[in-house]
Amino acid sequence: MTIKTQTVQYSHAGVNFEGFMAWDDALAGPLPAVAVAHTWAGRGQLECDKAVQLARLGYVGFALDAYGDGRVGSGPEENAALMNPLLENRALLQERLGSGIAALQAQPQVEAGKVAAVGFCFGGLAVLDLARVGAEVLGVISFHGLLKAPDNTAGNSIAAKVLVLHGYDDPMVPPQDVLDLATEMTSAGADWQLHAYGRTVHAFTNPAANNTAMGTVYNPTADRRSWQAARNFLAELFG
């Protein structure tokens, strides 16, 4: 196994973005690929590490950049300042994500027709939006993602398969959001599934998360179980 990595430059509407790609150079390509959408902090080490993990599973891993120039926030205040404009303009978020997927599909290591996307926290919302707008992905996986639908996808059908991995006690995602997502996915004709982990809050896959007041706490059991669920989903998806 020889994991190679490189930065991939792409652009949208005059803004430059920096994706991080990882793949096993010992495997004959092109390979199925999995995009990784980042948390509110930006495309940092967590997402790059996930891309490498995916490469070790035999995929091309690709950490997306939704903020531009690979920007990463320094703390909650700066993270929110980066994220909130895209929460307020989901169409722009969707377009930027679509540009990232197109850049991934254009890489010679990638089998363009076999692309999925996973996302964490804000990135979990982002990959659900990819499914909602009919982006060229076979499936999406949301890890402790925000679930509220945008205002520009009502009535859309969803062809991508959807897996939602959710902490049942997540204070940022009340039970009504889960019920609304179930109604939305069913109405859209999606092949969807949801795994809820008991006694688990937000950011449960992030070993650095330990803020009980904010409701962001790492849970090693939920982390392990959710990653296994994701592996199973991707294996079935790319079959």
Commentary on this structure:
The chain has 239 residues and is of the alpha/beta class. It has one domain (3-238): Rossmann fold. The protein contains 6 helices and 10 strands; from the N terminus they run βββαβααβαββαβββα. The protein has helices spanning 45-56, 76-88, 90-105, 122-132, 175-187, 220-238; strands spanning 3-12, 15-24, 31-37, 60-63, 110-120, 139-143, 161-167, 192-197, 210-211, 216-217. The strands form 2 sheets. An 8-stranded mixed β-sheet has the order 1-2-4-3-5-6-7-8, sandwiched between helices. Strands 9-10 form a two-stranded antiparallel ribbon. α5 (175-187) links the parallel β7 (161-167) and β8. α3 packs across α4 (122-132). The protein is globular, with a radius of gyration of 16 Å. The mean pLDDT is 98.
CATH architecture: 3-Layer(aba) Sandwich
Query: The biggest beta sheet, please?
Result: 8 strands, mixed
DSSP strand tally: 10
Strand arrangement within the widest β-sheet reads: 1-2-4-3-5-6-7-8
CATH class descriptor? Alpha Beta
The named CATH superfamily: Alpha/Beta hydrolase fold, catalytic domain
> What is the rounded distance between the termini?
21 Å
Strand content: 25-35%
Low-confidence stretches: none
Helix percent reads: 25-40%
In one word, what is the shape? Answer: globular
| Class based on secondary structure composition and strand pairing | alpha/beta
Brief description of this entry?
The chain is of the alpha/beta class. It has one domain (3-238): Alpha/Beta hydrolase fold, catalytic domain (Rossmann fold, 3-Layer(aba) Sandwich).
